[in-house]
Every structure is written in C-alpha cells, then in structure tokens.
Design goal:
With 392 residues, the protein is an alpha+beta fold. It contains 11 helices and 17 strands. The radius of gyration is 22 Å and the shape is globular.
C-alpha cells in the first residue's frame, strides 16, 4: 500500500470512529499529524446559499465567508480546489466538500509549500468528509445548526426536512434547486429520485401559508413517495396522491405538482402537469415554454384520473422548473417576471452549471420585483441533460 493510500485509510478510519459531532476535530487531528496542516476550518453553505458558515467546534477566529467574492466561495462555486499563496511561503488550500454532486461546503487548511503535491489526495479526503457528514446528520443537529444565519420558521423547518440535496449529478444529467425565502418558506417544494434507468423529478406549489401550507405539502410529498416506491407510473402516482389529499382535506385544499419521469438511456420524458409550476426548455440557446396539458391539482376532487405526455430531451438541453412565485411576480411597472425578465436571467446564466442557475434566477427575481422581501414562495429547479454515452 502506498503512503497516499495509507493516509487515506487512516483518515477514513478516524472519521468513521469519531462521534458524529466530533468529525471536524477528528479530521483536524488527521490533517495535522499526517499532512502537517494548520488552521483547519470547515464551513457549510447556509440555507440561502449566500454564505459559508463555520462549523463548531471550530478554531478560534474562524469567520463566515460569502459564497460570492471569497476564496472559500471560489472553491464552492467552481467545485475545484482553490489555492492561495501567502507571503510566508505556505499555501492556503480551499477544497469543496461534495457528495455525488451535492454541494455541502468547503474545507480550508494551510499547508507547507511542499505539500502542494498532495492537493488531489486532500480533495479526495474532503469528499470523504462529505459522505461522513451526511451519515452523521442522522444522529446530531450540529451541522444543521451550523448552516443557519438566522432561525428557521417552523414551516421552513418542515419543508427543508422534506428535501433531498439541493444539487446532484450523474453522467446523464446535473440538477440544482433553491427555495426562497430560505428561512421562511412554507408551501413550495421539490423532490427527485434516481435509479439505474430513470430520473424522477417533482416540483410542488402548495396553497396557503405558514404551517397549514407546510402540512399540506408534507402530506402530498409523502403520498407521492409512497406511490413511487410501489413502482407505479407517474400518472398513477399522481392519482394515488390525489386520493390521499382528498381523503384528508375533502377538496378544501389542493397541491399543484409537476411530475417528470426521464428514461436515462434515451432522454424520453413523461410529464404530468397537475397545477401551476411551469416548465421551460432551453435548446440551442432558444428558450420556450413547454406546452403541457393542464390537469387538476392534487386533492381537488375524488378519484381524478391523470394522463402523462411524452417529450424527448436532446443532449445539451436545459430544463427550468419554476413555481408561480417566480413566473408570476410583477415588477413595479406591472410586467410579470415570466414575460421577458426570466428569459434574460436564464440567458445570463447560460454558462453556469445547473447547481448555480437557481440562485442566479432568484437574484434576477429580486431585482425585478424591486424589493428584497418576496410576497410568495419562490422555487427554481434546473436540469441539464447530457444524455448517456454509448457503451464502448
């Protein structure tokens, strides 16, 4: 076994044997003894994806770092190591902490100049840390607390607990999503699930406000998951979730959902449009609203039947899912964001990876409405489709 392999094995063993809340300490010890590292700092992205916050217990003096315009933020945004070279001859490395395309945060450490050759090895170690953080969150609130710039409302707490990661990637696709206001969201939601052959994406726009909206969305998402895990098609998933919502609310509350099932080998896409979320397609730099057959939101009537439409994605396509809190927001002059401004925002984000597009679109939305605080939940999901490469 090589020295590199020995160090990675030792690091993995130390992380797995540490108590869930002691991962930063365990990793710092490994980095100091095996790599002569100093000033080790772990920062996690906050719920609003605007700042990287230090994880306690952290070294004294550790500060937050903005995602835009800081050295740790550059590593987070590019998903590549970023190295600074202070005047003392050492190097300051910032390494993305990522799990299967899901961006968690950044690991920063100071190294002797000669250790620059270990950068690839340390990047692998940062990824290993990410996997251990995901497992540790089952048993400790430390990392959930560390991601908060402010207190979440109870409705927002419930919504974030429902969510998958905010980004993920595979050979065939890359996904990114964001909710606003991040600390006070109540009705909008997204979900996805991938298997060997299919990717399923759900975008939800719940009616109402506060806890009632969150409870409605929670019931709807769990009903869809229950149906999905039974292995049935998306139109039947919609029908069963519709029945569950109607049985509880008797038509007094409903849930708007866009359900998408993509066959990974072909790009064939089946869609059920059950409400207000909109789907836009950017193909060859041309943006168009996907024309879908509007069907009833879930829970309005008893035993509604749903029908799936079929489309085909081409490599290079970008899909954008937006809630009515995005496309319907009016500027002070009255023009809705979905008329022209959304297309401009998406055009400006053409070179960004899928994980960065939702935040860029939401920044454009803030400028469009002319005030920082939204009147409604805003949800953006971006899917970049690459297609499956032919087997060699």
């Amino acid at each position: 076994m090589t020295d590199q392999e020995n160090r990675l094995v030792a690091a993995g063993r130390a992380l797995r044997s540490a108590a869930p809340h002691q991962l930063p300490d365990a990793l710092s010890q490994v980095l100091r003894t095996r790599y002569a590292a100093q000033d080790v700092e772990l920062r996690l992205a906050d719920y609003g994806l605007t700042v990287l916050l230090p994880v306690p217990p952290a070294p004294s003096g550790t500060k937050s770092a903005p995602v835009q315009g800081s050295a740790p933020g550059r590593a987070f945004g590019s998903q590549q190591p970023y190295v600074e070279e202070p005047a003392d001859g050492r190097v300051r490395a910032h390494l993305p902490v990522t799990v299967r395309g899901g961006r968690l945060g950044v690991l920063s450490l100071t190294l002797p100049a000669r250790s620059r050759e270990s950068l690839a090895e340390l990047t692998e170690l940062a990824e290993l840390l990410g996997h251990e953080l995901v497992v540790a969150e089952r048993d400790t609130d430390l990392y959930a607390r560390a991601r908060r710039r402010e207190r979440l409302t109870l409705a927002a707490e419930m919504q974030w607990q429902l969510l998958p990661a905010r980004s993920c990637a595979r050979e065939e696709y890359a996904l990114g999503a964001q909710l606003e206001p991040a600390y006070a969201i109540f009705g909008d939601n997204f979900d996805w699930e991938a298997s060997a052959d299919h990717l399923l994406v759900y975008v939800t726009n719940g009616m109402g406000e506060g806890i009632e909206a969150s409870l409605l969305t929670s019931l709807g998402i769990n009903a869809l998951r229950n149906a999905r895990r039974a292995g049935i098609p998306i139109e039947d998933q919609a029908a069963l979730a519709d029945q569950a919502l109607y049985a509880h609310y008797r038509g007094e509350a409903h849930l708007s959902v866009l359900l998408v099932d993509i066959e990974l080998s072909t790009g064939r896409m089946r869609v059920v449009d059950a409400g207000s979320p909109q789907l836009l397609l950017q193909r060859d730099r041309v943006l168009s609203l996907v024309d879908l057959d509007a069907q009833l939101p879930l829970g309005m009537f008893e035993e509604t039947d749903y029908v799936a439409q079929e489309l085909t994605l081409l490599p290079g396509d970008r899909l954008l899912f937006v809630s009515d809190g995005v496309h319907g927001v009016a500027a002070p002059g009255g023009e809705s964001y979905g008329e022209h401004a959304l297309a401009r925002a998406l055009g400006n984000a053409a070179l960004l990876p899928a994980a960065d597009v939702p935040a860029a679109v939401l920044r454009g939305l803030t400028g469009h409405r002319g005030r920082p605080e939204p009147d409604d939940d805003a949800l953006v999901v971006c899917l970049d489709w690459f297609g499956r490469r032919p087997a060699s």
